[in-house]
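Interim report, section 4.2 (structural modelling).
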Amino acid sequence: MASKSKTHRLHQLSGTALQSIAKRPRTITTESYMKDAFANYAGYLNELNEKRERVVKASRDITINSKKVIFQVHRISRDNKEEVLKKAEADLVAVKDQYISRLVKELQGTDFWKLRRAYSPGVQEYVEAATFCKFCRTGTLLDLEELNAGLLPLSDPAIEPLQINVLDYLLGLADLTGELMRLAIGRISDGELDFAEKICRFSRDIYRELTLVVPLMDNNSDMKTKMDTMLQSVLKIENACLSVHVRGSEYTLLGSSDPSFLMGVPDMQS
Amino acid sequence: MTGGETDAPASMEKQFEDFRVKLDEAGSLRERIRAVVNEIESITRLMHASLLHVHQSRPLSEVLEKPKAQVDGLKELYGRLAEVLCECPGEYYRFHNDWRSETQTVVSLLAFMHWLETGKLLMHTEAEEKLGMNQAEFALDIEDYLIGLCFLSNEMPRYVVNQVLAGNYDCPRKVLRFLTDLHAAFRMLNLRNDFLRKKFDSLKYDLKRVEEVYYDMKIRHLANGDSAEDNGTQGQS
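Predicted structure of the assembly:
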């Protein structure tokens, strides 16, 4: 398709180049076989680099808009859960339809691995946002199969579909614990202790599962750094939960935004 | 602390178990690839050592004899590489870094041998054929080929110097023309600031060095039978 017309144009190009060569000194004609070949290589590289550019742009857009979904989910509280999640989920679908679809357009066959470094950051952020939403909705981990099933409709059934690979999924999951930590702290200060404990158990599970898988990952130096950060996040969640646990009754005095608890006027929560 | 401390849900466990299996498989594939690549590396080292005789002005046919014989061995090894990759279709570039630099070296050696024999540049398709890398799923990456050509050019200045020392005064002119053409061809490419770009920059320095040797000889009238040809090279009008 696009590549066909490009090489066609290149052959026309070298045709005219050859004509102008005839007028020039003999020495230039000896290199015409080189120039013809390199005209093709130039075409190949141009196409590759332009595609890479487009993929990087799409990846950036995916990143920015996935982050917005994450910020949206952080607004969640006992009172507005349904509203917040509905919007987040709708925004997530928009990310898929508007931005991931652009990736689908560009990537085929060997591109998936060849250009992975160009689109991986965006995909990781998307994984983070999608798993975050799912956890807040159902308390479970969105698995890769389900995530990828959601991407299938974006691709023409005749071509190879864009599917998130294991490595990007795991990298995105590693970042998720950071957001879970922020969520846990936020929920604790709103008095939602059960939610915080759920987050605690969930993060522990993810961390534990990942420790067994990380050593097997390709080029896992990135992931190893993320694991260190992840452990810090898990520790923070656990320590925050410990504080709640130990100070038990003091925390039941915390209302949603009632500063008077300090005066000893309890605002009883359910 | 009692109620919630069950294991991770079964679905999570299962998913991660699947991941472990998949990644384990990729890991063993990678080990097999590395094993083949180590063998490729051994052969290229031998070929390179043989080719180094060219700096000691042994006769060309003698210098090329052993390396040419080893090309078949290389082809066989790349064939084995292709077989391993057949087991994971579409993942050529997943494991590409495991054989990238060795392949670039191989291309530079093949191109050098080709140039010594024919004075011409080994084409991408010719290189692919010599290595059996002209299958749909297993081709010679163009950037690897181009980088290999830059490694070839890196050898040229030293070759020219040693040829002149051995009394071959015609060499600089030939190499200069070749590198000039090669450099001009490379200039047609739009390069990013990556490794290929760096290697292209080194090509410029190789060309400059050969120009210097050629110039030194010319002004001392040491270059043989060059007067008529040279006017051609210089006449850019």
